[in-house]
What we know:
This protein is an alpha+beta fold. Helix content is 39%, strand content 13%. The protein has one domain: Class II aldolase/adducin N-terminal domain (L-fuculose-1-phosphate Aldolase).
Amino acid sequence: MAKLDSLIEDLVAANRILANEGIVDAFGHISARHPDDDGRFLLSRAISPELVEPGDIMEFTLDGAHTDSVPGKPYLERFIHAALYQTRPEIQSVVHSHSRGPIPFGLTGEKLRPVVHSCATLGAEVPVWDAQTSFGDTDLLVSNMSMGLDLARAVGDGNCILMRGHGSTVVGKSIREAVYTAVYLDVNADLQMKASSLGKATFLSAGEIEKINLRLSQSRPGEGFNRSWEYWCRRAGIHSKPGESL
Ligand code: MN
């Protein structure tokens, strides 16, 4: 199978997984960088992720311009993806969602930090981006490159960002990694909230985070991001491709 077809198949699977795991609902989206052209990325036309089929995948340049003849309307917030691919050459996939778990941490000043080993890809502390700071009163949607680039600056070299009053965005060096981090961002938010209601939570140390992420980066087929991918594919009713590249 051609690289592009295979990637589109994974991107469609990722849409279904994120919907099935409750990370996206009617809204939210996942993209992947084009496998043959670093200057482009792939993202569905504007429909609910659960409904995405291969024919819905559109192609964009890194300023968010639509470049193919796929009919339909692009997502308004494609600039989140465009800006992150433009500023972070190593990133291969981006997930934007309004998953509920992390949202309170974007509102209160309470930092979202990893509390369990499976959540180390979040990094030591998840930053918060507030559209109000640079743009004043908006409808909170990232609807142009200027907002996308401001958000990307706040992400820095991290993997996750909370967007005040809106949702969150995560990046990964593969579709599987981005899906993993999006799911575990939500898991961590839930566990941190529960732990905090009992008392003072202990967070992973910087050294623990580093060791866990090193282990994940050395995963083989059937381990790490691949293992979770196979599990989530099965749960979403998708026939996965075990053992393929990370
Ligand atoms: Mn949004």
